[in-house]
Amino acid sequence: MKIIDFRFRPHTGAILDGIKNSTMFKAGCEASGFDKWQAQPLERIVANLEERGVTRCVITGRDCRTTYGFPDNNGSVLEFCRAYPDMFVGFWGIDPHKGMDAVREVENVVSEYGMKGIATDPYLARISPCEARYYPVYAKCCELGVPVFITMAPPPQVPGAVMACTDPRDVDVVARDFPELKIIMSHGGYPFVHEAIYACYRNKNVYMDISEYETAPMCETYISAMKSMIADKVLFASAHPFVEQGECLAHYAAMDLPEDVREKVMYKNACRVLGLSEE
């Protein structure tokens, strides 16, 4: 079975160092033993992906310089996509506090760098995804025909982050106001499981992944919904290297899913979001 991983970052040395030394994730990395990772060269990482049947990976950038004073990682997204354009799909991280500079940035990275989408982190921006500062960015994405990836679950021990900024009901508002915008909620809106499922179900333009929460309490509710209500709305995503991709694939292989639904989740739904052929 072909696989598209909708949330992946290569575990090169620079990426691992950037994550564990960041002002956002340093405490969480120290608590979780994130330093167990051994860095690998990019060519070895890509070879491993191919061995697993992974045909593409979406790499999302992050820009929260306004709130955390930490440099964005968009340069690495561009670097990976240029090195392996047939494997990596880039979503550029946007800081909504930049105002019109953020809007111009969206235009530039899509037209000049070939980015296929935009990534946002409301819990790091410390504002809701339906807050007015995001709306010019969404409008520009509609104009350019690119999707928006919204991180909708705050990891443990992120200073200043609150769950209120990751309520899927706010994505429901965005979907109403921008029906042309493809929206991907990452991390399943956890712990707002039912709200996330229903936001996907009732809005044609809303999708989600459940990365990092495949074995969390209430995960069985996601799996039940995949079989019926949102079979066409869930995208496989590993959140590698926070979760090792091979381990994540094993979790999905063990899920009680009909094979046609499994194929949609692992590959076909992502093809539709990215505008790719399923061949």
User: For the residues shown, what is the average pLDDT?
Assistant: 94
Largest beta-sheet characterization: 7 strands, parallel
Count of individual helical segments: 13
Strand percent estimate: 5-15%
Rounded Rg: 17 Å
Biggest sheet strand line-up: 1-2-3-4-5-6-7
Helix content: 40-55%
Please state the overall shape, judged from the principal axes of the Cα atoms. globular
Low-confidence spans: pLDDT under 50, at least 5 residues? none
Number of strands: 7
What is the string of SSEs from the N terminus onward?
A: EHHHEHHEHEHHEHEHEHHH
- End-to-end C-alpha gap: 12 Å
Helix-and-strand structural type:
alpha/beta
How would you sum up this structure, described in words?
By secondary structure, the chain is α/β, with parallel strands linked by helices. Helices cover 43% and strands 11% of the residues. The chain has 13 helices and seven strands. It has helices at 13-20, 26-32, 42-51, 65-68, 74-83, 100-111, 122-125, 135-144, 168-177, 193-202, 219-226, 245-254, 259-274; strands at residues 3-5, 54-60, 88-93, 117-120, 148-151, 183-186, 206-208. Strands 1-2-3-4-5-6-7 form a seven-stranded parallel beta sheet. α6 runs parallel beside α8 and α9 packs parallel to α10. The longest helix is centred in the last third of the chain and has 16 residues, at 259-274. The relative contact order is 0.14. The mean pLDDT is 94.
